[in-house]
Design goal:
Strand content of chain A: 15-25%
Shape of chain A: globular
Strand order of the largest sheet of chain A: 3-2-1-4-5
Order of helices and strands of chain A: EEEHEHEHHH
Number of helices of chain A: 5
Helix content of chain A: 40-55%
Oligomer: homodimer
Number of strands of chain A: 5
Radius of gyration of chain A: 15 Å
Structural class of chain A: alpha/beta
Distance between the termini of chain A: 27 Å
Largest sheet of chain A: 5 strands, mixed
Chain lengths: 161, 161
């Protein structure tokens, strides 16, 4: 399971994978209204993630590291959401992995500075979907899940050779 | 209830107050080991706060706004903990209030640049305790609670005149 944290939309993507072939299981985004108090939005995100975890029982979950280069205020808001996401994962007893945005893009597109739409195209292609996943948050979450599945498989291969 | 968020120690302080006279109900700090994975520490903090809220049913809870002047990395870590604290408060249906560190110090010591030990002394004095609350995290949480109680009472007085 990949989780793309955001206070307005937190994307999730659940895949089945052997590290080479990936299959989409579920994807979507938990949207919260900017008009609601921030703590209520955190509660909605937590509830949404718990629901997805309870339904699909992922083996492991991956999130991106906080990228604080953009804007401190945005990064701090994101870190609150990320705290709630890590909590949901930890409380469900699901193993957690973290990747930098660069690792995710490199793993999925083969190029760390890839644009949003390139990530969406590669996610579509790698999951052999008839069309792009429309929501960029859902698509990013799938990219994180694919990155994690690929890394895990590499680790397993290295461990057995 | 006041909550002083921190990844190593999250202080809490529960008081009874009419806005002028304050009485200590409970205080302490939830300590987590830096050796444990961060997400497990978040889970410990959430469990600790939920326990305190369930035991004392606070009418409202107050936290400090994130102070990001110090160090971005520290502020981002703190924001994760704060996300978890806000979640615990929201999920318990407890009303949330936020104050800047300046407001808390001004409210408790009457001086925004007060030193840690001055806050500890004033908390002791305002709660008429025989001695200082040893843990600065617990004492800071009580200061936040006192600040909130004082502000709430002022608002109520203004509303009825």
């Amino acid at each position: 399971m990949g989780i793309d944290c955001g206070s307005e939309a937190t994307g999730y993507g659940v895949i089945e994978s052997d590290g080479v072939e990936h299959r989409l299981v579920a994807t979507g985004a938990i949207r919260t209204s900017p008009k609601r108090p921030f703590e209520s939005r955190l509660a909605e995100i937590a509830a949404g993630l718990r629901r997805v975890i309870a339904e699909f029982h992922p083996e492991s979950a991956a999130v991106e590291e906080v990228f604080h280069a953009v804007n401190v205020k945005t990064a701090l808001k994101l870190a609150h959401v990320r705290g709630v996401a890590l909590l949901a994962v930890a409380e469900a007893g699901v193993e957690l992995a973290e990747y930098s945005p660069l690792e995710v893009k490199t793993s999925v597109v083969g190029y760390g500075r890839a644009e949003k739409h390139q990530v969406q195209d590669m996610v579509r292609s790698l999951l052999r979907l008839p069309e792009r996943v429309e929501s960029p948050d859902a698509s990013d979450a799938l990219a994180i899940a694919i990155c994690h599945a690929t890394h895990e498989a590499t680790h397993r291969r290295l461990a057995t050779t």
